[in-house]
């Protein structure tokens, strides 16, 4: 695949950019160089490489979930600036 000046012009138009002819040529050359460099990845033999989501073997560092009793509602409501019917009362956000 090769990037043409017409492709650069199309992308510039989508981005609402005005490019000179020299800039279009420069960007086309630069983009083609990037694609040529990326094509080198196709030369690699990846047949025996397992797909991974991360290059390092990372394990979950979080603790296991464990069920435990909740705090008594009276203790929780002692920290509430305002409460009503066993619930935190907060200022209205919507009118």
UniProtKB/TrEMBL annotation:
<keyword id="KW-0648">Protein biosynthesis</keyword>
<keyword id="KW-0067">ATP-binding</keyword>
<dbReference type="GO" id="GO:0050567">
    <property type="term" value="F:glutaminyl-tRNA synthase (glutamine-hydrolyzing) activity"/>
</dbReference>
<comment type="subunit">
    <text>Heterotrimer of A, B and C subunits.</text>
</comment>
<comment type="function">
    <text>Allows the formation of correctly charged Asn-tRNA(Asn) or Gln-tRNA(Gln) through the transamidation of misacylated Asp-tRNA(Asn) or Glu-tRNA(Gln) in organisms which lack either or both of asparaginyl-tRNA or glutaminyl-tRNA synthetases. The reaction takes place in the presence of glutamine and ATP through an activated phospho-Asp-tRNA(Asn) or phospho-Glu-tRNA(Gln).</text>
</comment>
<keyword id="KW-0547">Nucleotide-binding</keyword>
<dbReference type="InterPro" id="IPR003837">
    <property type="entry name" value="GatC"/>
</dbReference>
<dbReference type="GO" id="GO:0050566">
    <property type="term" value="F:asparaginyl-tRNA synthase (glutamine-hydrolyzing) activity"/>
</dbReference>
<dbReference type="GO" id="GO:0005524">
    <property type="term" value="F:ATP binding"/>
</dbReference>
<dbReference type="Pfam" id="PF02686">
    <property type="entry name" value="GatC"/>
</dbReference>
<dbReference type="GO" id="GO:0006450">
    <property type="term" value="P:regulation of translational fidelity"/>
</dbReference>
<dbReference type="GO" id="GO:0016740">
    <property type="term" value="F:transferase activity"/>
</dbReference>
<dbReference type="GO" id="GO:0070681">
    <property type="term" value="P:glutaminyl-tRNAGln biosynthesis via transamidation"/>
</dbReference>
<dbReference type="InterPro" id="IPR036113">
    <property type="entry name" value="Asp/Glu-ADT_sf_sub_c"/>
</dbReference>
<comment type="similarity">
    <text>Belongs to the GatC family.</text>
</comment>
<dbReference type="GO" id="GO:0006412">
    <property type="term" value="P:translation"/>
</dbReference>
<protein>
    <recommendedName>
        <fullName>Aspartyl/glutamyl-tRNA(Asn/Gln) amidotransferase subunit C</fullName>
        <ecNumber>6.3.5.-</ecNumber>
    </recommendedName>
</protein>
<keyword id="KW-0808">Transferase</keyword>
<keyword id="KW-0436">Ligase</keyword>
């Amino acid at each position: 695949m090769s990037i043409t000046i017409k492709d650069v012009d199309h992308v510039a138009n989508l981005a609402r950019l005005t490019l000179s002819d020299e800039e279009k040529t420069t960007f086309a050359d630069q983009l083609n160089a990037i694609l040529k460099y990326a094509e080198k990845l196709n030369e690699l033999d990846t047949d025996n490489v397992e797909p991974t989501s991360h290059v390092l073997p990372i394990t979950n560092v979080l603790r296991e979930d464990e069920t435990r009793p909740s705090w008594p509602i009276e203790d929780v409501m002692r920290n509430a600036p305002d409460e009503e019917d066993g619930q935190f009362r907060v200022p209205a956000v919507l009118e």
